[in-house]
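To the team - iron/sulfur cluster complex, inputs and output below.
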Amino acid sequence: MSYLSDITGGIKSLLGGMTVTGKYFFINFFTRKEVITEEYPDNMDTLKMYDRFRGEVVMWHNENNEHKCTGCSSCERACPNGAIEIIWKKEVNPETGKAKRAIDKHIYHLGMCTMCGLCIEACPTDAIEWGQDFHHTTYDRTQLTKVLNKPGSKVISGTKE
Ligand code: SF4
Ligand code: SF4
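Output:
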């Protein structure tokens, strides 16, 4: 009996799905309404992800190759997966002559990131944000480890933790 009701349920569910597909097919065919399906990857050049899309964590840099990361490690501490490692160094402030903690490398392990956003929320200077690139497929896991501060970049003068 349960065997028969399983078959009936399967057919019902199949017809339900086909009804939705058929409705879209015929409505678009007869009314010439715009089809909303994205033709990926043919539309790669024009594809724009929604602003809220979480593709990866990135560090914003201005046109002078400056960022707002002070190396405070708040993001590292906030990450539940250990996906962020902050390598810092001591730098002497030329104005005060005092040694100060500064960012050397902001390392982000994309392969360990679950896109929870806790690191972005924890950053006191809004130095990191969501990037929308989602083309992360690779045969080499090491390519999923990124240094977010660009080579030769420095922190914007006056940025405070
Ligand atoms: S988004 Fe979440 S998992 Fe990814 S690096 Fe930030 S805190 Fe870690
Ligand atoms: S990204 Fe933000 S929270 Fe992380 S080390 Fe830099 S300033 Fe601190």
